[in-house]
Automatic annotation (TrEMBL), chain A:
Keyword Oxidoreductase tagged: no
Domain Large ribosomal subunit protein mL44 dsRNA binding positions: 231-319
Superkingdom per UniProt: Eukaryota
GO molecular function, one term: double-stranded RNA binding
Entry's Gene Ontology BP terms: mitochondrial translational elongation; RNA processing
Record protein name field: Large ribosomal subunit protein mL44
TrEMBL record, chain B:
Similarity comment text for this entry: Belongs to the mitochondrion-specific ribosomal protein mL43 family.
One Gene Ontology cellular component annotation held by this UniProt entry: mitochondrial inner membrane
GO BP, one annotated term: mitochondrial translation
This protein's UniProt keywords: Mitochondrion, Ribonucleoprotein, Ribosomal protein, Transit peptide
Gene Ontology molecular function: structural constituent of ribosome
Protein name as catalogued: Large ribosomal subunit protein mL43
Localisation: Mitochondrion
Keyword Iron: no
Domain Ribosomal protein/NADH dehydrogenase positions: 35-108
Disordered: annotated segments: 122-151
InterPro entries in alphabetical order: Ribosomal_mL43 (IPR039927), Ribosomal_mL43/mS25/NADH_DH (IPR007741), Thioredoxin-like_sf (IPR036249)
Source taxon at top rank: Eukaryota
Chief subcellular location: mitochondrion
Amino acid sequence: MASGYIVNRGVLTFGIHYQHVCRNVLLTQTREKKRWMKAYTLLMERKLKIEGPPPPKPRAQKPNWDYHAEVQAFSSRLKESFSPELLKTAFVNPCYIQSEQERRQALGVDSEMAALVLGDNIQLHRQGLEFTKSFLSDWCRASFPSLPSMGVVAIVAHLTSHPVVCHVARNLAIEDLTMSAQFPVPDEILHSTFLAVIGALQESSGAERAGLFLRDFLVTQLVGKDLFEMWSVVNPMGLLVEELSKRNMALPEPRLTRSAGASTVLPLYFVGLYSDKKLLAEAPGETILAAEEEAARVALRKLYGYTENRRPCDFSAAEQPRAPGLQSFSSS
Amino acid sequence: MTSRGTPSRFLQSVLQNGVGRYVCQLKRISLIFSKNGQSSLGAREFIEEGVVDFAQNNPGTVVYVSPQSCRIPKIVAEYLNGNVKEEAITSKTSQQIVELITKLTNQSGLDIIRIRKPVHTDSPSIQGQWHPFTNRPLSIGPIGPQKQQAN
């Protein structure tokens, strides 16, 4: 281990190598086998096992960090032109302002000398939330016209829920740029920061660009997800009866179509739902009731157009899907 | 070690990257080099000639250049999914460093481990997954070989 020693230059010392760090500091090293090293490493490992790993530090407190450059890179990476002040305001959370003011008071800094001139992101958060909900509902209604409003509400609630939004925010490096009192940034605060960024984008570049941003980052989280994972329906058969009566079709009649292994530990029953003698959907299950419920779900998926083999949503269009009848023009 | 002993993952992208717009996954690259060491010669040449062009061509990546007294010059690349990759550029020429940096820019931050399948799909079946009851006539009784219809 290197340590600073004051060396008596009159004495000849063998085996110690000196390195001048500056005029008054001299580091000594020995190249031989360090017999204290093993005991030291074992002690450190024992200490690590008792105390656990050190707490994570925010990226801003590690070396190589330039906030302004990071914010600029954030906006060019996403190919969006944010107004810098709005974007920086979007990252500032009220808890951060509070903790900063408390810190300054605790340090005894005069509040007039070093005033904290930072706006927080509550207004942008509210705007962003409103815009996100309305855009997502419009998108859902346009892509799945036969989905009832309860389904649209469920899909929008899933897409704006904390797990999904925080997953997107973490993978877009929003957590690095967020200014908040705690680290790791709690889900609630990350969620509101993401929505504030959407609000900032809407104010800087307009509703269309913000809509495209939401489509490219939030709506893509629907890829691979099933309708009833997001929308919990307790009575699918009742819902199916309602839907069929709305469309003036006959009520569904369940019939056992196939069965295998009825007296074994793993029986298999296929139940088909027939409306006016025509097959709506067929599904398997371990018991006849389970198969009937699953068949009702499959029938609902077919009616709402949310099957696994539906035509994929078009993400390449440079504009949002518009209702038929309006003229669509390409935006640059 | 065999593939069972080493980690592996499925083919995936970070946040469905290409589906909407493409986002370059490299968010930060730090060049740590020494001002006087011979192993950092290539790094110093790269900083003289190539780093500014690289930074201009990739506006979404922040480039940090930090001269320190170090024995091995390094490139530390940080990706959007949180992974940090360190590569030593000891005694590499400026050209090799350029190639290395291009490679790092084109990677997503996912681990470089064995990929179990070279394909991935979210809709594996269009006409419906085959199961033993497909294309068989409906029957509730015991299942046996289908009787050939008399022509």
